[in-house]
Amino acid sequence: MAKTDSLNLTDCSPQQIKTEREELAQIALKIPSKELAQIALAETSLLSFIEQAWHVVEPSTPFIHGWHLEAISEHLEAVRESEIKNLIINIPPRHMKSLAVSVFFPCWVWVNNPESRWLFSSYAQDLSTRDSLKCRRLIQSLWYQARWSGRYVITSDQNQKTRFENDKTGYRLSTSVDGVATGEGGDYIVVDDPHNVKQAESELKRNGVLMWWDEVMSTRLNNPNTGRKVIVMQRLHEEDLTGHILEKELDYVHLMLPAEYEKDRHCTTMIFSDPRTENGEPLWGELYDEVALNTLKKDLASEYAIAGQLQQRPAPRGGGMFQIDKFQIVGAINERDILRSVRYWDKAGTEDGGAFTAGALVHKMVDGSFIVADRVKGQWSAGKRERIIRQTAEVDGKEVNVWVEQEPGSGGKESAENTIRGLAGYRVRADKVTGAKEVRAEPYANQVEIGNVSLLKAEWNKDFLYEHESFPVGKYKDSVDATAGAFNKLIAQKARVGTWGGKK
User: Fold this and answer.
1) Which of 27, 122, 202, 374 shows the smallest number of beta carbons within 10 Å?
2) Are residues 272 and 331 in the same domain?
3) Residues 243 and 328 in one domain
4) Contact predicate 328/454, CB 8 Å
5) Angle at CA 228, nearest 5°, toward 222 and 229?
6) What residues contact residue 106 under an 8 Å CB cut-off, 6+ apart?
7) What is the pLDDT averaged over residues 436-443?
């Protein structure tokens, strides 16, 4: 037995098991005191466990340390201790996410908590099964058994590729999206890559994953008060599972680790702050230096894939219409320098979902520059929306010209007319829009590119810039539509004193 690399106690008789354990005990007695200290460290530190067990899982590949492994391990340790109940990890491919979360983590937890029950899922059953087999082989290895054989035994009556149990009532079930067996529950729910690239591009399949999560997988905790959920994935679409959860603003700790550092997206959690300081610093420079990262980029081929899978930002930076680094941020506006002003409304009639209503206030200045002074945005019922539009006009004042986007059809006309009636006493007109959003936004984007557009510093700036960064491929375009609409009206108007579009 001692000459083998792994053990299989599942098919042994009680006497055989006793004999095997006696032999393992003899092996354990011969472990040097220094190694005993390492064993004790492995029981309390997930990263130490990974480093020590690495040769069992990946015997032909040397272990390469990276600080991101420390970050992942510390967050998973916090999950085990219930300091974190819900965790999202976004990390590039080939950075050990599946091994750390789906293989080493459950094996480590079972050292001290073999009674814990686990549900694992991925977009494909073969991936989930792959990690299940690696996990079981690690548990049955001579290395693991020599250290912790007395803690639990894998039972023989439930020992399958996709499900195995131990004699302390713990189990691991591995399935795929839409494949969770009826009646199964867990203390830990782990989802590792719920989408693949092709599926994420399909709205139907993407929404199917989101529904599966909301209505099935997320409800399978044995105890919702003590259970834990872990989602680990690379970003593939704005509306992928990570985007879905973040948009709902649920109570999740979000560990977001881009392949190359971006200062304006610095990740901080309750126990972590990204140690990088300069744009472009690699996440795992020991393995993926500049040359290796460039190879990954070439393999991914598109800016969209690079932005999502490597940078955890499923929209190209600077690859869309707007170069957001060209926006100037100003702390105040001298009203005497304002030539004319427009508030433009891009309306939506939905509440708690769907598109947003957005209203942008833009000033044209006497020097020919433009300042976006305000952005109002929300998902409101029709009645609340009209009240907010009226209240906004009262704040802006009557010198601000108001335009309302009028969508084609009778419904769009009626909606615009309702707004105009509600703004009686103000300068307000309907704008019958034609052409694609990208075409309407082009003059505005050109002025941004030459540095002729500024933002008044405010809380809405971050969301505003993100929407512009992802335009036109992003999910939301409302702020861009509203600002472009105001811009187009300003450049079309002539400042004639006492007339529409001019200052009295």
Assistant:
1) 202
2) no
3) no
4) yes
5) 110
6) 116, 118, 135, 172, 188, 190
7) 89
In a domain? residue 386? yes
DSSP E strands, 316-379? 328-330, 338-346, 357-365, 370-378
22-42: per-residue pLDDT in tens?
A: 555 555 556 666 777 889 899
CB 389 within 8 Å of CB 419: yes
Nearest one of 346, 338, 458 to 399, comparing CA atoms: 338
The amino acid at 21: R
**Mean pLDDT confidence for 133-149:** 94
The helix (run of H) or strand (run of E) holding residue 120 is strand 117-122
Q: Pinpoint the alpha helices (H) of 11-85.
A: 14-29, 33-44, 46-57, 67-80
- Find the domain containing 263 and state its range: 14-310
Please, are residues 503 and 495 in contact by the beta-carbon 8 Å criterion?
Answer: yes
The position carrying tokens 């599942």 is 10
| Within a domain: 501 | no
Q: How far apart are CA 114 and CA 166, in angstroms?
A: 7
Query: Are residues 173 and 106 in contact, defined by beta-carbon separation less than 8 angstroms?
Result: no
Terminal CA-CA length for the chain: 96
Of 264, 287, 310, the position where a domain reaches its end is 310
* Secondary structure (DSSP) of 216-261: TGGG-BS-TTT-EEEEEE----TTSHHHHHHHHT-S-EEEE--SB-
Beta strand residue intervals within 131-227, DSSP E: 154-159, 163-166, 171-176, 188-192
Domain count for the chain, please give it: 2
Q: What is the average pLDDT across 155-179? A: 87
